[in-house]
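Section 5.1 Outputs to date
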Amino acid sequence: MTSTVPAAVEQAARPQPPITMFGPDFPYAYDDFLAHPAGLGQIPATEHGTEVAVIGGGLSGLVAAYELMKMGLRPVVYEADQLGGRLRTVGFDGCDPSLTAELGAMRFPPSATALQHYIDLVGLRTSPFPNPLAEATPSTVVDLKGESHYATTIDDLPQVYRDVADAWRRCLEEGADFSAMNRALRERDVPRIREIWARLVEKLDDQTFYGFLCDSDAFRSFRHREIFGQVGFGTGGWDTDFPNSILEILRVVYTEADDHHRGIVGGSQQLPLRLWRREPEKIVHWSPGTSLASLHDDGEPRPAVTRLHRTAGDRITVTDENGDVRTYRAAVFTAQSWLLLSRIACDDSLFPIDHWTAIERTHYMESSKLFVPVDRPFWRDKDPATGRDVMSMTLTDRMTRGTYLLDDGPDRPAVICLSYTWCDDSLKWLPLSADERMEVMLKSLGEIYPDVDIRGHVIGDPVTVSWEDERCFLGAFKANLPGHYRYQRRLFTHFMQDRLPAGRRGLFLAGDDISWTAGWAEGAVQTALNAVWGVMHHFGGATDPGNPGPGDVFDEIAPVELPEN
């Protein structure tokens, strides 16, 4: 593995098939499960038409609802805001409707093979995303401590950047068996994956990302660690992740989750919206032409959930903000976990106490973005004095941190993501309005590009988001701290409910923060499929013997279990 810069160049030259993002914790081939002609399983005919609550209309909720509908159940989707969750695509008032901003997920790796199944299913296209020094990125500027370096390849940058890239490569190899794990994942060698990962989980569960770097001889230099924090690997600087568990970072690099990204043409929110309206060709019980939308009054989901509690017969009773009360034999909760502690009144009996502890210990990352529409991709203009692009994809230690340039051709309006930040860098923007944010960003970028009139090309008002300030999210995505592995294991394995007391069954957790790859849409899909298996099993259903589901093979590939004492 390499740092940001060589990754885009070196790995683009490797025509290898994408690794699947099943990851080392639970090496189950979700893509094979989805592709099998036998389907995901079936339930007894006596259960057809039974209602199942699905709380949260993001990608995980809609994947779960879609697959449960295909089995003959009747999903009842509750959504507090808008369908899509953190797949949120918005336009700009008064501008060409083709101009959009991705306030949430905007780039997806080829290793997200279960996600790609649904992208293909609904007929969406993808295109290369312009990450730092990616093949689709005309040029990149790295601006640190007031010095700017223009590059189209790694060779254009000073030697210290190549030294940092090499240090990261050596650090991973020496401390985390990178090549061996990467090879095992590509070959789907489950015994080897489990052997390597079991040793690393026990060794590294209490280690931070920064501590992992410091323990490596390759990163003895503070300067190298500082540069790596700003420039990082794949998508850019990772210093905001320095306090997090190194296991979180290893999952990303092992599965190549931060490489070769692609964006969804027309916006990522189309995926959940199309799933909502899609009429499956193969469906049980329901008549042809049935969709999730058609199973809901006026084609709209139920409103926000305000209370969850257990009632007689181990049922799950849901109260929504309109005061409507409905009781279900099974429910899937896909919204962010903290809502169970704050906006939704919950009975303690919903989960075992150790699961409540895991929910309470969830650690979310803050994140903010700001986009502006511009008249054309002026950054492709050439400086007559240097022959370089007048503006580039920019990584900097200034307030903006990451600036992305997004266009659909030279003669069309375009979009700039002026800033994409996380954690402390995101909190710095929180008190500012969109216009105030834009002014600070333009000032910072003006110091890097003093001869470029960025403001003169802006043709509309900025749009912005701070996910930590969104009432239904309270943060952008989960990132475990050191020592949190046991908590994550409890949440991920919650779909295996035969192990739970009878009074704690029937409510299934899903969503990317339940997965081992929080912050990636693939994790949302995978945990949705786990929950689908769990609900199917709860109703007495089963998978085809030729296509065992995640619960059928659980005992063979279960995540490493660390001692509690």
